[in-house]
Input
Amino acid sequence: MATLTELLGTEPPRTQLVSDCVDLVDAQVKTKGLMVKGAYGAIKTIKRRFVPEVVDGLLDEWLTKLQPHHDRWTAAPQSSFADYLIARSE
Output
């Protein structure tokens, strides 16, 4: 069975995953207060690719940390992996 890093951490899915994560960060920042929005906007103005570069740099670590959960889910999948994670979010 392929690992999450093999499935999602290589091209072409990696580029889309990074983009989706950046969209998620953008959406979350929009729900925050003026200070957070302002700081985030300033960072994006100073270095436009900062957030995608950070997400890309951390992606392999995140996938590695998710791997044990994915292994348990694949042993007996009864719902989507997202639902599995949400149900165990503690």
